[in-house]
Amino acid sequence: MTFELPSLNYANDALSPIMSAETLEFHHGKHHQTYVTNLNNLVKDTDLANSSLEEILTTTNGDASKAGIFNNAGQHWNHILFWQCMKPNGGGAMPSELESRIVSDFGSIEKFKEDFVQAGVTQFGSGWAWLAIDNGKLVVTKSANASNPLVDGMKPIFGCDVWEHSYYIDFRNKRPDYLKAFVDSLANWDFVASQLD
User: pTM for the whole thing?
Assistant: First the structure.
């Protein structure tokens, strides 16, 4: 199986000023493309050559000898979700089903957003903040580097990249501002709702 860089559902400048065209050109066109290229090279002619991305992740998770494969597969999977979690003029009201699930599991939309931003802010170094489904319940979690909740048996449905390449051009060192803007002004809640069980 040959993995490919997915096309974006929006133009490079469509998320500006929160995520600039320059950020998207580097992040999607260079960083994500590199993960895809590396992954294809690493699995070529191995027993993982015909495996799905999810199979590669679960098979290589925790195997130090396959860390390179896991990291590139993880970053490819994470970014495929990440690009879909955003849209031009995002944020705003959520579809009713998503809103009620969030209120039921977090107490309020505000509490969910607070927990999500906090997860991203407190992820030391590179990593991700996530909204995931864990045994039918919505939970906020975080992961380091290329990992994600899939490897812990959860289903990630909303993720924000907190590697510096995701926000440094536009926000410099202000990760909290980036996370708040991501949730309030970029989030594609229709997509997130479509991922509910």
Answer: 0.98
What proportion of the chain, given as a percentage, has pLDDT over 70? Answer: 100
Residue spans in the chain of domains classed CATH 3.55.40.20: 96-194
CA–CA gap between residue 121 and residue 129 (Å, rounded): 9
Across the strands, what pairs with 133?
A: 138, 155
Beta strands in the chain (DSSP E): 127-134, 137-144, 155-161
Which CATH superfamily is 96-194 part of?
A: Iron/manganese superoxide dismutase, C-terminal domain (3.55.40.20)
> Could you tell me which residues come within 8 angstroms of residue 137 by beta carbon, excluding any fewer than 6 positions away?
105
**Which CATH architecture is the domain 21-84 placed in?**
Orthogonal Bundle (1.10)
Handedness of CA 123, 125, 131, 137 (dihedral sign): negative
Residue range(s) occupied by CATH 1.10.287.990 in the chain: 21-84
Residue 24: per-residue pLDDT: 98
In Å, the largest CA–CA distance within the chain is 50
The overall average pLDDT reported for the chain is 98
Span 156-185, pLDDT tens digits: 999 999 999 999 999 999 999 999 999 999
